[in-house]
Amino acid sequence: MYEEFKRIGKTLFGLGIVGSHSGNMSTRSGDRLSITRRGSMVGDLRDGDIVETGVYEDDSGILLASTEIKVHRAIYQKTPALAIVHAHPPYAIAMSMLVDSIVPRNVEGAYFFHRIPVVDAKLGVGSDESARVVAEALKDYKGVILRGHGSFVHAKLLEDALSYTSILESACRTEYLLWLAGKKPDESVTW
Asked: Is the residue at 187 inside a domain?
């Protein structure tokens, strides 16, 4: 499992959708979850950077778990997710400050995401409010953007969560470039 986290983290960093010490990943197995350590370098994970703790209950692992542990737990409790990637993709973040949802117009984005909701939380990183609004949105969608903060994507496999995160960012980058070219969506599209 460590090797899979390491491979996915390196790819996220290489794609430029996490910073040196930002973003996190987790997987679920029964009532346990494995999550990247608070403050770890997702692109250069080392021994001890994956922390195991409970999906429903705290234990000693909670002290080292990512600051987004509440959000990951809420997603696991409300969805069938077995893997989560939280990233800070720059185009997705930029678009989240302009719109309330993104309806991808590129082929791959439209195929995987018919809509990417943007949700708000006054208290951002790892708050109860973030956990509630993100998990609620992910009951109906593969991915969501927390306005001004980043994306949360869930899947059955960590590699699929990486793929969906990349597709989400590509859809947002395409949308951003279309806006720059003066091609905002038709008024008939719900934003």
From this structure: no
